[in-house]
């Protein structure tokens, strides 16, 4: 007789290490003789009863998953509304879980996903269905409440700091006759964590990036241009890191790429660097180059942080443990116990404290002039990019990433008419 | 009595490994007891008599230079015209070389720089000044004639192939409810080498990148959109790599970022991916993400190719050897002697055969439909991204890059009134 199955799903934007979490979840459950199903494309796969039997994957594939970026089972941007508004969907979800004897549901995502996991657990309770729901943290935005940091962030932060340090050496070499100003656009809708991490690239006041623009501070064009001019006069060139989410004092995004909104109601951003480059060129006359790394910054497993990679696995392992212990509606969070030496542990936090919250950078992390980070921010951020996560390279000069078989489980229910 | 000095200068866009060449030049010259001066900001430093005494740098710094991206002595975009048109500048150059007893001039750059080195050598001969001029190849564009490949290209190629492979895993995970099409913009004004190298990211026809747009083929929007639609229908998503230099049949660049031209008369490009993204969204309705890596692709020493890194050092070492042997107006070039196993050697080529030529991709490297590379291209490109160039990482999670002291040599001449 079945002891029950564990359902794992990935949600929202993927990261360089979300599969490391998946790998840890599957390995830990296998060790406990628990069968793991994965929903294809996140919660949508659960609604559609489109489930993957991870027992068809070899141990080698599951191990390789730990160093493969992207989302191995597919992710989704699909937000369930309140229990009242989306009741039919929640009930369908429960029906699918029941049909496949799912006793443990692990949802790996950001704050929207924590909210979904919480609601599923509430409905299961209402129906008297024995289900343990555990949220598993993931987001390069680092904006989840309670947890000290979010798996995925440290690697994107390392990518950003390394890239900015490298590009700055390029700009410094070209500045005399060519590019004077370089602008790097970092992801981050409402919280500037990733842009802030670029600050780790420099150690002294004149080191790049000399200017960081954060969504936590209103964008003031005159002040920005004056600062660029001042840096170029002193250093000879200037590197700017701008968060995609910066906005003016009246709340308007500095660059809104067409205004299309995704199904979460988020506007699709991008184009801040391009906009700023145009302003610098027009007002100050400097030659400007700019970069929009976009998905490269969150999928760059080749430069992933070891700290981040270890934490991504730790939350996966802990999530399975919490689930099997029946700790319902919780999320394994990272608790920092010491900055130097850097020490951390995993604890369980109630999902209700994580769901739908957004953690912005504390005011004490932002320099008074608004264009950089403080020593306090540096002490917080520094350990997160430490170490290089192991990665096997092929003889062809490319990382050895795995593609899973993703064998579908036979359906037991009628098609979903979502 | 002085045995004469060797002057080294960097020119044009810098790369992840041009400093590896510089490191090899200095180390080789030191071994031969030859003093090396470096011109600050390329040929401009020579004209201004702004020279750096590299003997002030420690052996450790010169060794660290081998893994530091950017241009350690500064580069420039400054093209000298013909001997007739810029006679005064060439004569000033000779005056500076003579004042500092420069007997060997090594100019590290692309085809414009090869032309400058050639002209300096012609003028020296005319004046009876004993000078040996050697061009040293460098360009991520891979468009120099004669040499099998150009130092700098292999690392940018590896960055591009790795980034595209990683981003494709991200897109594949998101495609069901979000991004269907991802567009990566690669550098390359007139030759599509770098965009072509992205083709190494995939092995099978449906692997990313499913579409590569090269400047060697006219951009045909209808055919491009039809291909995107076809790939999305079959694979579920599509990754496009577009060379910044693609143009329509009538020769117009697909995206011209404002039309500003640099001092070489090159238009400043950038914006192809953004333009294509807009067209795909408008015509096909897919959600699109795009990336413009810009300087990140040429400064990413953290993911440099070992082949490229070794070749960058080999041309530096050979350049010193050729110079000391008095082989005037030559450039060390890479000669491939075997594809599998990959074997190469260095030979000397006359600068006249390199200067002002531009090597495009052979027709046999481009797939018949124009959207991908052939097996022949793959056999050529594959060895160039092989191996991971060694890189020391700091305990802070960042690569250990060196900043030289760059101590100026005392001036002996009146200021240049350029």
TrEMBL record, chains A, B:
This is Pyrophosphate--fructose 6-phosphate 1-phosphotransferase. Catalyzes the phosphorylation of D-fructose 6-phosphate, the first committing step of glycolysis. Uses inorganic phosphate (PPi) as phosphoryl donor instead of ATP like common ATP-dependent phosphofructokinases (ATP-PFKs), which renders the reaction reversible, and can thus function both in glycolysis and gluconeogenesis. Consistently, PPi-PFK can replace the enzymes of both the forward (ATP-PFK) and reverse (fructose-bisphosphatase (FBPase)) reactions. Pathway: Carbohydrate degradation; glycolysis; D-glyceraldehyde 3-phosphate and glycerone phosphate from D-glucose: step 3/4. Belongs to the phosphofructokinase type A (PFKA) family. PPi-dependent PFK group II subfamily. Clade 'B2' sub-subfamily. Non-allosteric. Its EC number is 2.7.1.90. It comes from Stenotrophomonas nitritireducens. The record marks 138 as: Important for catalytic activity. The keyword Magnesium applies. The gene is pfp. Gene3D superfamilies: 3.40.50.450, Phosphofructokinase domain. It catalyses: beta-D-fructose 6-phosphate + diphosphate = beta-D-fructose 1,6-bisphosphate + phosphate + H(+). NCBIfam families: PRK14072.1. Homodimer. Residues 8-322 form the Phosphofructokinase domain. Keywords: Cytoplasm, Glycolysis, Kinase, Magnesium, Metal-binding, Transferase. The record marks 112 as: Important for catalytic activity and substrate specificity. GO terms for molecular function: 6-phosphofructokinase activity. Diphosphate binds at residue 13. The active site is at 141 (proton acceptor). InterPro entries: ATP_PFK, PFKA, Phosphofructokinase_dom, PKF_sf, PPi-PFK. Its cofactor is Mg(2+). Mg(2+) binds at residue 111. It is found in: Cytoplasm. The keyword Metal-binding applies.
């Amino acid at each position: 007789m079945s002891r029950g199955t564990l359902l794992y799903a990935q949600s929202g934007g993927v990261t360089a290490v979300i599969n490391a979490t998946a790998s840890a979840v599957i390995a830990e459950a296998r060790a406990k003789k628990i069968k793991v199903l994965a929903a294809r494309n996140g919660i949508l796969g659960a609604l559609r009863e489109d489930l993957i039997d991870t027992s068809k994957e070899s141990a080698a594939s599951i191990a390789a998953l730990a160093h493969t970026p992207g989302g191995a089972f597919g992710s989704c941007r699909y937000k369930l509304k309140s229990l009242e508004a989306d009741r039919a969907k929640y009930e369908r979800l429960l029906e699918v879980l029941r049909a496949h004897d799912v006793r443990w549901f692990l949802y790996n995502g950001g704050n929207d996903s924590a909210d979904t996991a919480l609601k599923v657990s509430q409905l299961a309770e209402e129906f008297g269905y024995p289900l343990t729901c555990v949220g598993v943290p993931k987001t390069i935005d680092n904006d989840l409440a309670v947890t000290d940091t979010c798996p995925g962030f440290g690697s994107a932060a390392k990518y950003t700091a390394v890239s900015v340090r490298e590009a700055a050496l390029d700009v410094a070499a070209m500045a005399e006759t060519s590019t004077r100003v370089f602008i790097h656009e970092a992801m981050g809708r409402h919280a500037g964590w990733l842009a802030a991490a670029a600050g780790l690239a420099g150690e002294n006041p004149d080191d790049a990036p000399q200017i960081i623009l954060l969504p936590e501070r209103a964008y003031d064009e005159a002040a920005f241009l004056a600062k660029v001019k001042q840096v170029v006069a002193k250093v000879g060139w200037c590197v700017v890191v701008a968060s995609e989410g910066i906005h003016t004092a009246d709340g308007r995004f500095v660059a809104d790429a067409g205004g299309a909104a995704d199904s979460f109601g988020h506007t699709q951003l991008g184009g801040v660097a391009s906009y700023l480059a145009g302003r610098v060129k027009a007002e100050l006359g400097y030659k400007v180059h700019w970069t929009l790394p976009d998905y490269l910054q969150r999928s760059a497993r080749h430069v992933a942080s070891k700290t981040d990679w270890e934490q991504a696995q730790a939350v996966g392992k802990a999530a399975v443990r919490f689930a099997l212990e029946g700790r319902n509606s919780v999320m394994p969070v990272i608790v920092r116990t010491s900055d130097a030496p850097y020490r951390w542990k995993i604890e369980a936090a109630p999902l209700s404290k994580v769901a739908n919250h957004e953690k912005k950078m504390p005011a004490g992390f932002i320099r008074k002039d608004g264009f950089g980070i403080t020593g306090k921010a540096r002490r917080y951020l520094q350990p997160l990019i430490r170490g290089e996560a192991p990665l096997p390279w092929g003889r062809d000069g490319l990382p050895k990433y795995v593609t899973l078989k993703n064998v579908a489980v036979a359906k037991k229910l009628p098609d979903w008419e979502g």
